[in-house]
């Protein structure tokens, strides 16, 4: 399969700040390629380079080579308008023109020679704007414009469609329709490059993936492999020099044994302590904690189905939540708990050892207890917050010993989402 985009040693500076460092990738015709990486890593900058949108930014300097269909896009003879016609782009945050909504919609197609009103009506219909089309442009949200921008882009028939997080807007049904359009676009011989934080979509729809971190190319390869590396980056576990076994639950257990030995005064002859589990997560540096700390949560972890301590887990896969609690006083029937909230603060789910009917009778002062909650992740893809707690009852009154409020970030990856918070994992049959 021939390449439609070839990038060699691409570097870009905004003034004295280097935003891209030696990016190399070949993008085949009739393919879907994902671009992933943490926020601010240079993804949008890279995409804008492919159709020279960075030309509009003052102080930009570019070295290296980008070829479209075998031709250098930075050559003096390049028709930039023609280039942008062939390489269409949907921005995450479109900036509308100060004109009517309909004229905003029509502007792009008209510059590409589309003047058929029926075609424009098709664009409006696809975007599902409805009667809002007659509203003043200033009343539109960025989400509405992102819908329109996507509808426009796929209907002006570019060779390459670049989508920068635009599919994060709209409900799940609109997103599903967009992905169906992706497949139609590909079947028509087109090429798609898109940025997304939905790792399930990356694995499901993309043959290859470019992973960028801090402006540097980390890897180009199979989507599933790139997603695994991305998870390590999110969990601050990615290091070319680090061995895989150091990132497994087995290693965490070794660290646990050393910690408990230290607490009892024993001398360990094993390797130096590797640090806390929580240091491998995306922890909240400004978390709220309270309680009398008679029992203190000294560490916590999220462990995925592969045994890796991580801030991200896959939907419908088993995962483990671990807490380590040190007791400064002897306590009867301590209760250990966790809860999960969405970004809006809605408490979605959680449990504790009392509800699970699995409490410890007595824990002596000076002891450290590690409690594990094992379950299957049912939540839809998205970003969540996790809290931890340790309590007990004294004279029938609940006593809070230690609570870590919004302690760490949790991201769920999914290849299929339904409506709402949970997936019921329905089986469909016809009778």
Number of individual domains = 2
Q: List unreliable stretches of 5+ residues.
A: 241-273
**Second CATH tier, the architecture of the largest domain:** 3-Layer(aba) Sandwich
- The averaged pLDDT comes out at 82
Distinct helical segment count: 9
Helices and strands: which structural class?
alpha+beta
CATH homologous superfamily caption of the largest domain: P-loop containing nucleotide triphosphate hydrolases
Q: What gross morphology would you assign?
A: elongated
Radius of gyration equals: 26 Å
What's the CATH C level of the largest domain?
Alpha Beta
**What is the N-to-C succession of helices and strands?**
EEEHEEHEHHHEHEHEEHHEEEEEEEEEEE
Task: State the distance separating the first and last CA atoms.
Answer: 44 Å
Lateral strand order in the biggest sheet: 6-7-8-3-9-10
Question: Key features?
Answer:
single chain; 431 residues; alpha+beta; Rossmann fold; Coagulation Factor XIII, Chain A, domain 1; 2 domains; six-stranded mixed beta sheet; 21 strands
């Amino acid at each position: 399969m021939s390449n439609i985009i070839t990038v060699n040693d691409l570097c870009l500076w905004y003034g004295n700040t280097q935003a891209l460092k030696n990016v190399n990738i070949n993008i085949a015709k009739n393919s879907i390629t994902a671009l992933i990486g943490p926020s601010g890593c240079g993804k949008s900058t890279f995409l804008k380079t492919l159709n020279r949108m960075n030309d509009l930014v003052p102080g930009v300097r570019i070295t290296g080579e980008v070829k479209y269909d075998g031709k250098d896009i930075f050559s003096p003879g390049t028709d930039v308008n023609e280039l942008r016609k062939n390489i269409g782009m949907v921005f995450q945050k479109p900036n509308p023109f100060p004109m009517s909504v309909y004229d905003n919609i029509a502007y792009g197609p008209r510059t590409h020679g589309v003047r058929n009103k029926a075609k424009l009506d098709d664009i409006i219909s696809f975007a599902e704007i409805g009667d809002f089309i007659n509203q003043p442009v200033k009343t539109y949200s960025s989400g509405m414009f992102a819908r329109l921008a996507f509808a426009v882009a796929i209907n002006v028939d570019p060779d390459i469609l670049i989508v920068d997080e635009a599919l994060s807007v709209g409900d799940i049904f609109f997103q599903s329709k967009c992905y169906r359009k992706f497949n139609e676009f590909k079947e028509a011989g087109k090429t798609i490059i898109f940025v997304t934080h939905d790792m399930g979509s990356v694995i499901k729809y993309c043959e290859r993936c470019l992973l960028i971190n801090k402006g540097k190319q980390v890897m180009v390869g199979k989507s599933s492999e790139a997603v695994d590396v991305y998870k390590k980056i999110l969990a601050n576990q990615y290091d070319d020099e680090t061995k895989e076994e150091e990132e497994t639950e087995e290693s965490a257990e070794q660290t646990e044994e050393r910690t408990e030995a230290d607490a009892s005064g024993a001398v360990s002859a094993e390797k130096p302590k590797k640090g806390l589990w929580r240091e491998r997560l995306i922890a909240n540096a400004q978390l709220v904690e309270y309680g009398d700390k008679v029992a203190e949560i000294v560490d916590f972890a999220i462990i995925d189905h592969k045994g890796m301590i991580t801030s991200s887990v896959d939907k419908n896969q088993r995962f483990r939540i671990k807490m380590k609690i040190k007791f400064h006083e002897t306590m009867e029937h301590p209760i250990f708990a966790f809860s999960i909230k969405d970004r809006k603060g809605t408490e979605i789910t959680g449990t504790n050892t009392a509800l699970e009917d699995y409490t410890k009778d007595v824990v002596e002062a000076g002891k450290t207890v590690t409690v594990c909650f094992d379950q299957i992740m049912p939540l839809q893809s998205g970003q969540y917050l996790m809290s931890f707690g340790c309590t007990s009852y004294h004279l029938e009154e609940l006593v809070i010993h230690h609570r870590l409020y919004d302690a760490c970030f949790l991201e769920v990856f999914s290849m299929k989402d339904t409506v709402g918070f949970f997936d019921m994992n329905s089986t469909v049959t016809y009778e």
